[in-house]
Structures are given as C-alpha cells and as structure tokens.
Design goal:
- By secondary structure, this protein is of the alpha+beta class.
- It is 34% helix and 27% strand.
- It has 4 helices and 8 strands, in the order αββαββββαββα.
- It has a 4-stranded antiparallel β-sheet with strand order 6-5-7-8, sandwiched between helices.
- β1 and β2 form a beta hairpin.
- The longest helix is centred in the C-terminal third of the chain and has 35 residues, at 152-186.
Length: 187
C-alpha cells in the first residue's frame, strides 16, 4: 500500500469516515457549500524506523499548531447561491487535535512483534500491522503489509500491544508538544 493511502486510512478511517481521527466536518464553513481544504505534506529525511508512525506523530504535532482563520459568512440571498465569506487575517481558531490518533506499527518477525522496526529488522518480517489509536483507545484505522497472512488471534494480540504502546506514545508526544508551545510563548 502506498504511504499516502496508508496515512489516509489510518487518520481518516474507512470510506464512510467512521472512526476518523481527523474530523472533516470541523473544516466545514457552510455545510455542503464551503469548506477548508487540508493539505499535509511530509518530508522524509531518513528511512530507518517506521515512516508511517513518524509521519503520524509529525502530523499530530503540526495540527496542534495549526490555526484556522475565523470566517464570517454573509447570508446568501437564495439557497442556491454561493455564500460570501469574509476570512479574517487576524483571528484564528485552534485546530482540534483531541481525536487525532498516533500510529503504532508492529512488525512480526518469527513469533515476536517489534515496535518501530529498523530497515534490517523489517527485512526479516513476515508481516506488519499499523494501528492508529486515539486518546480514548479507539482504533481509527488499521493497515497490514507483507505477504504472510495473520491468524485473527495474532491480529487481536497486535492491536492490544499497539493500544498499550499508543498510550505511552500519546503521553510523550503531548508532553513534547506542550513543552514546545511553552518555549514558543516564552520567546
């Protein structure tokens, strides 16, 4: 699976949007007519470790520092008309990242799972499962790669491990984001 497709699946859930870690309705300005587009670009500078997990953490950190310009809507004269919007250059709303998950990839080598496997460890894998888990412990997305099939009991075990690791990762990431915000306010 392509990296961007895996990220989309991990952060936006299925086609229906159920389980989405990023609430796309928060980008709506006028329901069904006007909305913000959210583009996320990532630059990968090293491929040692799991890129999907690193990009997921980077996206969560970037979105926590994202301001959405406040918009005032002029009432449309008819329901079919496109409403006029006035976008503020000075007032911003904080992007809500409370439901944005972290991504934890477990690489299966033999009977063991490795979190954040190196390229060398991944070369020995039979398969890998990436699980995105939000602060409430809910699964927002899941992807599998590698040729070997997995017994459902193994997948459930991997999800359990991913939930445990995600809690620790989420706490560490939130702590680092808060520290960076405090440094920014001090300067």
């Amino acid at each position: 699976m392509e990296l961007s497709a895996a990220l989309r699946q991990c952060l936006l859930g299925g086609k229906s949007g159920a389980g989405a870690g990023i609430n796309l309705s928060s980008l709506s300005i006028v329901d069904g007519k006007v909305c913000w587009d959210l583009y996320i670009d990532g630059l990968v500078v090293s491929m040692d470790g799991n890129v999907l997990d690193a990009l997921g953490a980077a996206i969560k950190a970037a979105l926590s520092n994202t301001g959405i310009p406040k918009v005032n809507i002029a009432s449309a004269t008819t329901p079919d008309e496109q409403p006029e919007v006035d976008v503020s250059d000075e007032e911003f709303l904080q992007f809500d990242t409370t439901a944005v998950p972290v991504i934890v990839t477990l690489t299966k080598v033999g009977r063991h799972y490795i979190v954040d496997a190196t390229s060398e460890e991944e070369s020995q894998m039979s398969s890998a499962v990436s699980v995105s888990v939000n602060r409430q412990g809910l699964i927002c997305g899941l992807t599998k790669r590698g040729g070997a099939g997995l017994d459902p009991s193994v997948i459930y075990d991997m999800i359990s491990v991913a939930k445990h690791v995600s809690e620790q990762l989420m706490n560490k990431l939130d702590s680092e984001i808060a520290a960076a915000e405090a440094m920014e306010e001090d300067s």
